[in-house]
Amino acid sequence: MFITVDNATLFAAAFGPKMSVPILALGGWIGSWEDWLEPLSILSESQRVIAFDHRGCGISLAPVESITFDRLVDDVFAVLDAYDAQRCVLAAMSMGAAVALGAALKHPDRIAALVLVNPLDLSAQPAGDADPFLRALTYDYPRALQGFIEACIVEPDSAHLKHWGWHILNRASQDAAIALYRMSQSISFGSALARVTQPTLIIHGESDGLVPLESARWLAETLPDARLEVIEGAGHVPVLTRPVEVAREIAWFINEIDE
Question: CB–CB of 93/29 below 8 Å?
Fold first, then answer.
């Protein structure tokens, strides 16, 4: 379905039984809801699942100037409202993890728990305009996307996933990709992370070359109620490359917090 929100039209999808608190999934940077397709398909056998294309990605429509952190956070609740969901388990990957944390801080009563997959490094200092990836996005966008895909997917025999990843990322315009990347580099929570009290599962690929495993360990130690699960040999997008393991970890986590 398409959901009209503040200065945007978001594409969203939902499936699975409506009997439980749903899982709402967020993609990273310019990844669409398809990032989560396989894990959600597995989880939907027993759980209500919802996902959407955030501003600047997939088939959602939004002016580039509307891409702000606050709007991305507000869009989470607009999607929940559209599906008449009062609360959710909020699952997010990479940049989306920062949006999920922002949502948990803004309306903690509506976020039952968090699942953060290879979350953005919130312990690092932004590189600013000297950032080589930002320069690549500006001056050679197709090559930058291909390089990003190669860095994300390090698992062997993954040519089909890299092909799929290219088609997912290539739906975003260059301007939207730059706006989202600049936004991601400006996010800082500081001491506010101590107020994220929801049970949190952090899943991180051991072989992630984009976001160091140490940053996931730092986040697990910083959040009041978090634990880290490492997937051996996985790169930056285990939701694509190791969907069964990701779904299994999420299912165990939900069962654990429901007990």
Answer: no
**199: pLDDT confidence band, cut at 50, 70 and 90?**
very high
Provide the pLDDT for residue 127. Answer: 58
Q: Work out the end-to-end distance of the chain between its first and last CA atoms, rounded to an integer number of angstroms.
A: 33
| pLDDT of res. 190 | 87
Helix (H) or strand (E) holding 93: strand 88-93
> Concatenated DSSP letters for 97-164?
HHHHHHHHHH-GGGEEEEEEES---TTSPP-GGG-HHHHHHHH-HHHHHHHHHHHH--SSS-HHHHHH
User: What are the DSSP calls for 216-231, one per residue?
Assistant: HHHHHHHSTTEEEEEE
Using DSSP, state whether 78 is helix, strand or coil. helix
Q: Tell me how far apart the alpha carbons of residues 223 and 221 are, in angstroms, rounded to a whole number.
A: 6
Residue 126: the pLDDT is 62
Report how far residue 96's alpha carbon sits from residue 25's, in angstroms, rounded to the nearest whole number.
9
Q: Which two tokens stand for residue 149?
A: 């895909």
pTM over 0.85: yes
Amino acid identity of residue 108, one-letter, is P
Q: Residue 225's closest CA among 195, 245, 191?
A: 195
DSSP for 181-203, written as a single string: HHHHHT---GGGGGG--S-EEEE
Sequence-ordered list of residues with C-beta below 8 angstroms from that of 246, at least 6 positions apart, any chain: 39, 117, 203, 231, 238, 239
